[in-house]
Amino acid sequence: MKKIDIFRMALRNFGRRKARSFLTVLGVVVGTMSVVVMISIGQGLNASFQEQIENWGSLTQITVNAGYGDQGTEAYLNDDSVATISQIPNVLGVMPVKNEMATLIKGREVWTGSVMGIDPSQMALFDFTTSSGRLLEPDDKDSFIMGYTTAFSFYDPKGNGEWVSPTDDQGNPNPLPFDPIQTKLKLTFDTSYGYQTGTGKPKMFKVDCVGVLDLAYNDFSYSIVMDFDTLERLKEDYEKTVSTSDGSSATTGREQKSDNKYDMFYVKVDDMKNVATVQSTISQMGYSCWSAMDILNQVKEQMKIIQLVLGGIGAIAFLVAAIGISNTMVMAIYERTREIGIMKVLGCHLKDIMNLFLTEAALIGLMGGLVGLGLSEALSALLNYLATSGAMGGMGIGSKISLIPIWLMICGVIFPTIVGLISGLYPAWRATRLSALEAIKNE
Q: Going by C-beta distance under 8 Å and a sequence separation of 6 or more, which residues neighbour residue 135?
């Protein structure tokens, strides 16, 4: 028999018992939906976690702090270590950071937090982006850019101002409470400003905000960022005006860590696949390292377990569907015993009889897989809509909680077809074992 004839006969036989065929296909549909949707939820949660972790910091970025080497010697953060780390393979750049605590004054309101001194020329490499204004430029004077969350952190030390969240219930950024670029701001390194009584006014500097960073959940979002040299100059000018009770110049504790010129490094790696290798190399040099990939890898390990559990639950439904296919094909043999006998008497090869029953079983799996995949896509879209609309209590924080990648779509069609073929092996083998004469006598 020709393959096309076998396929036509399979289609015709499939339509003989419409109700039974429908119920068998329905079992495959349920099994397909169970597996695809369960795995898609695992994929969606994995992608959602990765998106949230990326908000904490780039997945290709490593944070480096001072540490101790194998011999107990301290690994310092200075210009020499910048040059050494920059030579590590797959490192695109190293951005030293100097932190100073300061107070920013806006009328009666103040903000006290970290001023991060960096090299403005490296901002583009480290993915700095602004929601308004621009990034720092090397020739800026007494200028800074403000973290998005910082703009919401100003308060009146003597009042009861109401705090406004930087994000709404869906995690989207709220409008800024004021325009930092158009607002007159002053900066002082006196972090007790606004709370002191009966003391002199501290040294203040007029500073200009040239931009506001996009909303993120990293160190920069809660700080203000300034050129390293500008920060050093302002701090030195401030220290000149500060005296202790005995008239000597006040110190900032810098003498205690004079070998550490910087407080931390940010290291940019060319690809997230190389982060672990670069981080290991830096750690072996004695530095303390951290990257968002550390958390992501832990989450991925946990998600593997969750996906196995979810996939196992769906596989049970597939097993039931496979039993249904096998049962349907066995019943078909009993109903078509005479037909099988006639085919044998007419000289039909055993291989053709087996292929006929395997084709019918595969068609059940294929149809169930196609319908199940279509319904899975619809259910996935519904889950994502409910999540992003807040109907599920803000679950997903604006991200998809169900994600069906291309490979899962392909598996959602191929796997049910293979299950159908496997389920039809025994019925097909049994059909070939029937005696032709006994089959013809059967009514």
A: 120, 123, 124, 128, 145, 210, 211
**282 in a structural domain:** no
3-state SS assignment for residue 391: coil
Asked whether the CA dihedral 110, 114, 117, 121 is positive or negative, the reply is negative
For 178-236, the pLDDT digits (tens) are 999 999 999 999 888 877 655 567 889 999 999 999 988 778 888 999 999 999 999 99
- Both tokens of residue 143? 């200028």
Closest to 426 measured CA to CA, from 279, 309, 322: 322
Q: Would 286 be classed as within a structural domain?
A: no
Bigger pLDDT: 237 vs 339 = 237
Q: Are residues 19 and 67 in the same domain?
A: no
Q: Strands, E, within 282-327: which ranges?
A: 288-291
Instruction: Indicate if 171 and 261 belong to the same structural domain.
Output: yes
What is the C-alpha radius of gyration for the chain, rounded to an integer number of angstroms? 34
Q: Which domain holds residue 415?
A: 3-56+298-441
Residue 166 has pLDDT above 90, yes or no: no
CB neighbour list of residue 245: distance below 8 Å, 6 or more residues apart: none
DSSP for 328-358, written as a single string = HHHHHHHHTHHHHHHHHHTT--HHHHHHHHH
How far apart (Å, rounded) are the C-alpha atoms in residues 196 and 110?
13
Amino acid residing at 439: A
Q: Is residue 92 part of a domain?
A: yes
Same structural domain, 26 and 122: no
Number of domains in the chain: 2
CA distance 429 to 443: 21
Estimate to the nearest angstrom the gap between the alpha carbon of 356 and the chain centroid. Answer: 47
In one-letter notation, the amino acid at residue 282 is I
Residue recorded with tokens 């109903």: 335
**Tokens linked to 398:** 């604006």
Coil, strand or helix: which one is 201?
coil
Q: Do both 225 and 335 map to the same domain?
A: no
For residue range 253-288, list pLDDT tens digits in order. Answer: 444 445 788 999 999 999 888 988 999 999 888 888
pLDDT tens digit sequence for 119-135: 998 898 988 999 999 99
Contact between 368 and 27 under an 8 Å Cβ cutoff? The reply is: yes
**pTM exceeding the 0.85 threshold for the entire prediction:** no
